[in-house]
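User: Receptor-like serine/threonine-protein kinase. Structure?
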Amino acid sequence: MASIILGILLILVPLPLSAEAQTSGNLTFSNSLTANDRNSSLLSPSGEFAFGFQKMGQGVHLLAIWFEMIEEKTIVWSANGDNLAPEGSKVQLIANRGLVLTDPRGRELWYSNLTATGLAGLAYAAMLDTGNFILASASHVNLWDSFSQPTDTILPTQQLNLGATVTARYSEMNYSAGRFHFKLREDGNLSFYATPHPLDDESDIYWRSNTPGSGIQLIFNQSGQVSLTARNGTVLKVITSVTNLTSGFYQRAILEYDGVFRHYVHPKLANLSSGWPKGWSNVSDPVPENICTSIVQNIGSGACGLNSYCTLGNDLRPRCQCPLGYTLLDSMNEMNGCIQEFAPQNCNGSRRETDQFDFREMPNTDWPRSDYEHSAAPTEEWCREACRADCLCAVAIFNRETCWKKKLPLSNGRMDLSEDGKALIKFRINDSTSKSTGNGNKNSTLIIIGSVLLSSSVFVNLLLLLITYLIYRSFRSRDSKLSQPVQINQAIGTQTFTYQELQEATDQFKEELGRGAFGTVYKGVLRSEYTNFVAVKLLATRTGESEKEFEREVIAIGQTNHKNLVQLLGYCNEGQHRLLVYEFMSNGTLADFLFGASRPSWYRRIEIACDVARGLSYLHDDCTRHIIHCDIKPQNILLDGSLTAKISDFGLAKLLMANQTRTTTGVRGTRGYLAPEWFKNMPISSKVDVYSFGILLVELICCRKNYKPESEIEAQIVLVDWAYDCYHDGSILKLVESDDEASSDIKRVGRFVMTALWCIQEDPSLRPTMKKITQMLEGAVEVPVPPVSSSFITSV
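Assistant: Predicted structure:
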């Protein structure tokens, strides 16, 4: 009987919570909306639209407007895409400020930009049935509305005046500002741009309405037509149009993250038309019809990222792909471009490596405006050889007896039937290609003997039996090891969990937070004294290396206690199951924070640099057993709710005895952050972390990745090279010239750059300790002039 009552209570309890989460009426000075798991929102009178918080994952929320009465809660407007709100944030009306979004600590994340007159008369906020969210006076005069501040979507009854801008979001699930936008220009044109801040360069515009005049408006009427009209109501140009559409449909028109403007409809469930699909349907021709061929920029990447190419799918959507031999820069965003997977051709005059390269053919493909040379070519083979002999040539296009050479980075890539030429993609042949050793006779003899033996069926059968036995022994040995718990020093003082406990805590490993080389991290909640979220790392790889990784991580971080290290709460060491339980870091990785669409403040970056330096100083000098992390990079620095930086992922860590300063080990870490001694068979010390921190510090100063092949200026492709040049030339301001906060603090910028240059010295003995570096960053000691070195840059 008790279990039945409990079951009824479990069903009934969510009902009042849901009722509280969605409220009708107005938002006034006396109430507010809170970001939590229930997606707190304010409904329009009909309930068709909602204003409030949408959960975006990892404990962060988007203040938005969406369609409420359909299963897919499609967002049509957002306030803080560039600055997501953590759990517990609030939006409320504040006198003399307007509508304000604040985080749990009261810090302002976004506010409505009201005039002084508007602030004086402000009385309430309301969600209307048109999808417009308004701030109004007591006499119901509209003081501010979302329709006049569009993001990427417009709705029926909405109209935009001259100067209005609509900006696409960064990606499908990232609502920060992307690079595509359209604008109603003073010359009467609706113009689409492929760059976020165009310089009136014609190549920045990839579509225009060709409607000269003044005083035009963009209007989305209730009958389903998006058009440009004159002030007197005359329709100058129809952008999209839907015919025979009834009031039983929702509509929206959106500039999507791929740069294409599309018009969608969705049936209202109460009046579902027979045969109409239940989801959103694109009901008009896309604008432009083929963005792959519409964008041809003099400066810029084109429809897709640099070194990639665009193709139009059967659904008329662009697809961004890498040529053979190239891979995505960002596996989560195909529009961010590609990078070579192989070493580029040597340009040394004495050895051009021409025999090490061949070509892959791609018909109907081109990268227009990436040419640096062209010449008459009688044959395709002639074009191949011309590119092979030119170390700068990455791609050759053969078209109508002409050979066009192109070098990296490649831009405006497209594969389309309208392209007549054939692309010849240069790639490095495998190093496994056979080479003469000078022992031809001996090798030939061995080959003949081997052939005779292998031709014998008796020999083959014996060989197969031997292989089968060895494989069987290997599996038995491995399974025996895996069935035994890893021996971990119990003195580390962390809690142990059963596998079942962690399954329940993560809801069967439902919400993934991230993925690494040895396992996957999931979000969970423990039924214990820990009331907050936790991060559970599941080591899924059943290899000897993953076993060692588990031991290293538990021992390394279990013995530490510092505010700038992620805290290990416990682990599971049950049978074949290996799991680690960490404190939950609600603001994700430094990589996402630093390299996203919006730039973090200079002063926040200063704090993060000092946080990481203090954490490393503790690992190197203050632990019972000194620890070399071996993989310092932005992806392994996590940020908590207050944006305090903490070092994580000790899977590659190397432990030292108290009296030990150096060790020998195989190469560990991530390319681009590795110190030179990893590749020189030298003893490894804590100075490898110092080197990695130096790369990280330059990235924090300039707010960009160390390697940026799409950079328009060749000298800026490798950031530390550029930083060294700027320091050497006395032009450090160039590194932060677009950052007003950092530019006004140029003395500290100089100190940080000098500190970074000390960190990345090729000779480990010249690099300071992390304790000394922390003092340099904090200004406690003077930073001496770093040595002039021509070699450390090339080792990056």
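DSSP finds 16 helices and 48 strands in the chain. The two ends are 70 Å apart (CA to CA).
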